[in-house]
Amino acid sequence: MNLQKTMADVVKDGEWKREERSDGWITVQRRRYRNRFAGSRGKAVVEINTNFKAAEIKVPIYIYNVAKDVTVCDINKSVDCIRSLCQEADLIALQETWLLPHDLSFLGTIDDNFAFTGTSAVDTSVGVLRGRPYGGVALLWRKTAFPAVTVINCTSVRLAAVKISLSDRSFVVFSVYMPTDCSDNLLEFTECLSEINAVIESNSVESVFILGDFNAHPGELFANELLSFCSERLWSCVDMNTLPSDTYTYVSDAHGCLRWLDHCVVTDAALPAVISVSVLYDSYWSDHIPVLLQCKFNNINKHTTLRKPDAQ
Fold first, then answer.
1. Distance of CA 212 to the CA centre of its chain
2. Is pTM, for the whole model, over 0.85?
3. CATH of the domain at 45
């Protein structure tokens, strides 16, 4: 059975495979693949005072079978825009990559200076699949800026995480893609937050940056739950704490409504490293808009102890 041409081939060749169109994509049955792929780490000397820029964005960077209203130009533009972010940022968190498990290595072709890890939300072990790919998260990091990186295995396919060591300081970075905000999904939302907390505790690192699409608009169910969770653990949602109330990170293609769904959450120990947070409104090339977090890691204490709230 022939497969429709992958986005990697589109980027390389600039045209679709000529074949009969179908309403959905189909993959042939294949052996089970692991859902995680870690790229090379690289080796380099890094200055501890180097500024850190982490851009978190949600954009389909890889599409196995494209919807009828998406063109080759749209795909190339998405990849090119991520490459342009690689020129400015040292770490990029991606959500909703639409990657299949065996295609995660495509992340390594975006920029040769970046290593990567990614998780697919698509389970190919079930055999034949129909419909477009969905979900998926990834992290890209500059190899010269972060030479010592360990990929952290997460149970949820909504999470990707790495532990980064710089001299005598270390921190953890998450890329997260939460389910749609509704009461039926609240349990899954809180389970993801609980897994993040468990990963933090098991890795004995207090400085943590959690970047991604939380599907949490201020004043609504998921945002209220997120802020409550943060308060209990002395975390901070730095964008909601500092940006104006009319901030938005998502524009609906259907009816043009503006939503603030993408956030930067940090632990109490990581907060001193945050210099600024901003939304890159001039980089509008997806329905979600990139968020830029600038950090300076020498502001993180060499040895920190996680403070827990007083018992009630």
1. 5
2. no
3. 3.60.10.10
Strand order in 148-152's β-sheet?
148-152, 159-166, 169-177, 208-213, 262-266, 236-237
**Distance linking the first and last C-alpha atoms of the chain:** 62
Structural element, H or E, at residue 150: strand 148-152
**What total of structural domains would you count in the chain?**
1
User: Could you say which residues of the chain have pLDDT below 70?
Assistant: 1-77, 124-134, 284-285, 303-312
**Domain containing 266: what range?**
7-11+34-298
The answer to whether residue 24 sits within a structural domain is no
pLDDT digit string (tens) for 215-271? 999 999 999 999 999 999 999 999 999 999 999 999 988 888 999 999 999 999 999
Does residue 25 lie within any of the structural domains? no
For residue 210, being part of any structural domain is answered with: yes
Asked if the structure places residue 68 within a domain, the reply is: yes
CA 214 centroid distance within chain: 10
